[in-house]
Structures are given as C-alpha cells and as structure tokens.
Write a structure and sequence with these properties.
Elements: H1 7-17, H2 20-41, H3 65-87, H4 102-112, E1 121-125, H5 137-145, E2 148-151, H6 154-163, E3 173-175, H7 181-193, E4 198-201, H8 214-222, E5 226-230, H9 235-243, E6 253-256, H10 262-272, E7 279-283, H11 288-295, E8 302-307, E9 315-320, H12 324-329, E10 339-343, H13 352-363, H14 368-379, H15 383-395
Parallel strand pairs: 1-4, 1-5, 2-3, 2-4, 6-7
Antiparallel strand pairs: 7-10, 8-9, 8-10
Length: about 400
C-alpha cells in the first residue's frame, strides 16, 4: 500500500527544522537501527547458543525469502526517499508498508479492540528499545486508533509505524521533543479539546524516563484532560531484571545520564559511593569510556553493563567498577551502542549494636574467645571492643 503522496510534506518539514546533512544522517541512522531490529524480530532468542562473554542473541529460524524482500523494500525505499530529499536525487517509485506484522495487528484488534479508549485523552505509548517485536498489543491498537501521534522525531516514528504496517499521514504526526515540548503541548491540548485521541511516543522505550514526555503529560493533566499509560519496553527495567542487584526491599535509584563534564561527573559518582541501593545509569556510546573512568574510582563495587539491550549484538556483563575501562578496551565493539548500567548497592555498614547482639547470642552457646571471633567475622565489629563487652556480659550478675 503506497503513500508517497503524504511523505513529501513530511520531508519538507523535517528539512526546515534542521540542516539537510544532519537530518539525513539522523534519519538514516534510525532506519539502519530498525532495519537490523526488524530482521531480528522474526527470530527467537536462544540463550543456550551463546558462548561465555559473547552476545546472547542468536538467530534460530530462517525468514522466508518473501519476508526478507518485503523488509528490504520497506526500509530501502524509505532510506532512498530520504537520500533523494537531502541529496538531490529523488528515487523512482513509492515505499510501502510492511506486511510482517499483519498477524500482530489482527491480534491487537482481537485482544485490545473491545476495550474502552476515550476521546480527548493522551496515550503515553512505550515503544521498543531495539527489537521491533517488543511492542504490546495495546500499543499497536492505540497507534492504529490515534488521530494524532505526537513523537520525538517524526521521521523515526514514521519508519517505525510503517514497519508495523500502520499508515499515518504527515498531518497526523506532530513533533514534540525536548526543545519544543512546552510549546508543542499547546498544540496537543488543542487537538484533545477537539475530541481527538493523541498518542505520544519517544524514539525508544517509555516516554518521560530520560526522554521527553513529562512536561507534556503534566500540561495535559493540568488542562483537566486524561493521560493514559501504555506500558512496555524500558531499558531501566530490562537491565535491572538481569543484574540480580535488588536488595531485600527491592528498591533502587534511577540516576539516568550523569553530567558530561568530568569534574561534575566525578562528583556525582562520589555521591553514589555510599548508596546502599542499586543505581541505574544510562550512557551514550561516545561517553561510555569517560563514565567508565569515573566509575573505576569505586574499586571493587560490582556493576552490570547492558549494551545494545534487545538488539542483535546485545551483551550483558557484571564486573568490578575498577575493571570496566579495561573491559571496554578489550573489544572495540564494546564502546558502540547504547548502554544501561546497574551500579550494585554498597552493603550497609553494620551498626554498633549488631556486634553486641550477635555476641550475646553466641555467648549462650560458646566460650568467650570463640564467640568474640565469630561475632567480629559476622558483623565486622572490632574484636577488642567485642572482647571487653563479652567480659562485662559474663561478669554481670
């Protein structure tokens, strides 16, 4: 199903927003990412096929030739169209919607279509962080149903929608990003007041988590309108789920991106030194080596690194902070891709009365020297202080 007629205005808007070279580079980079992800989306994840220290995702089943060709037409056509718009050569032919997710769209209608989706509501939609198959059925249904899709990058979201076989015109896409979020919220609210359903999607993952969306949601709520979450993929929960770092209370701290300036970043890391809860950090490929050097100051503190989560070259490793720079240097590929990290919590220092409490229990069954030795090893309390306390306990009437 061709829709080239609607795309020329979209490209002109994108061209007006920024420089031609920058716009083409960003668009093609996103398309390349989704082209790789689309190929992976039709394969299974095989954890048993991975060798230690290597990517855990392996291709397990072959795609049909028709599907491979179809995806090539989808993404190759979009990329060609963008090259023509920015490079002066307009390619022949239109680009087409993908048929790869037809069954998913049908399933979305069956599973979610009977539910209530009120008008004049903003739907905050989580989108995949790399693997196209990580989209919820409700999200697919809402993206089809929405009158307007507000998005961080209209070109990126248009490519994503077409990968799912969802057709939206350029007039139905509204750019809402970190540089215009407050102003664009007014346009969203206006459309909501007219009775539209508006979906908001950031470039990847759950909006408003180190992504635009928070100010938009607040503005819509303050206008007395409804904001509806469409939960789904998140690099934060993804990396936490494999880190094994949650404490007894399962609490954690989300720090996101630390400051880019070295001094400010080192100061932020120093403040995390005494944090007893796991800390989730995010980082871009061009800054990961600098972050690793700052985290190395934490010595043997464990850190779990999630690189390219859910994508073809996904890698997850847990190591000491001091070893993180050398781990990156060991393979040039490791400095590429998007990163989500979990800094494991610092064990809480034993309280002074912990040693006494353990000592009292041990003295009921053991000689003084043995009880003192074990209490010191268990709690980390000073052995001399425990010994003096043991003598007082024994001499007490």
């Amino acid at each position: 199903m061709a829709s080239g007629e609607d795309d020329a205005p979209l490209l002109r808007v994108a061209h007006a927003r920024g420089g031609a070279a920058e716009g083409a580079a960003r668009a093609l980079a996103h398309l390349d990412e989704y082209q790789r992800a689309a190929g992976l989306a039709h394969h299974q994840v095989d954890f048993t096929a991975a060798t230690p220290g290597r990517p855990i995702i392996a291709r397990k089943q072959a795609q049909s030739a028709g599907r491979e060709v179809g995806q090539g037409l989808v993404f190759g056509g979009i990329a060609g169209l963008l090259r023509g718009a920015y490079g002066g050569v307009f390619p022949a032919g239109d680009f087409h919607l993908s048929a790869s997710f037809v069954s998913a769209l049908n399933a979305a209608r069956e599973a979610a279509g009977s539910q209530h989706y009120p008008q004049s509501a903003l739907y905050v939609v989580a989108t995949p962080i790399g693997n196209l198959a990580d989209i919820s059925l409700r999200a697919l249904h809402v993206l089809q149903l929405a009158d307007t899709i507000a998005c961080e990058d209209t070109r990126h979201t248009q490519a994503l929608l077409r990968a799912y076989g969802i057709d939206k015109t350029s007039a139905q896409l509204l750019a809402v990003h970190q540089h215009n979020e407050s102003e664009a919220a007014g346009a969203v609210i206006s459309r909501l007041h007219s009775g539209q359903r508006v979906a908001y999607a950031s470039d990847a993952g759950t909006p408003a988590v180190s992504d635009p969306g928070a100010r938009l949601a607040a503005a819509v709520r303050d206008a007395g309108l409804r904001v509806v979450p469409m939960p789904g993929a998140s690099s934060v929960t993804a990396v936490l789920s494999v880190a094994g770092a949650a404490g007894d209370d399962s609490s954690f701290v989300f720090a996101g991106f630390l400051p880019s300036k070295a001094g400010e970043r080192d100061a932020a890391v120093a403040r995390l030194r005494a944090e007893t809860r796991p800390v989730v950090l995010l980082e871009a490929p061009h800054r990961i080596e600098a972050l690793a050097k700052s985290l190395a100051a934490l010595g043997g503190r464990p850190v779990t690194v999630g690189r390219e989560l859910t994508k073809q070259f996904e890698e997850v490793a847990t190591l000491s902070c001091v070893d993180l720079p050398s781990w990156l240097d060991a393979d040039v590929q490791r400095a590429r891709g998007e990163f989500a990290l979990v800094l494991h919590g610092e064990p809480e220092a034993p309280q002074a009365d912990d040693g006494l409490r353990v000592l009292e229990l041990l003295l009921k069954e053991l000689p003084v020297k043995t009880a003192v030795k074990l209490a010191a090893e268990i709690t980390g309390a000073a052995r001399n202080e425990l010994y003096e306390a043991a003598l007082r306990i024994k001499s007490a009437p």
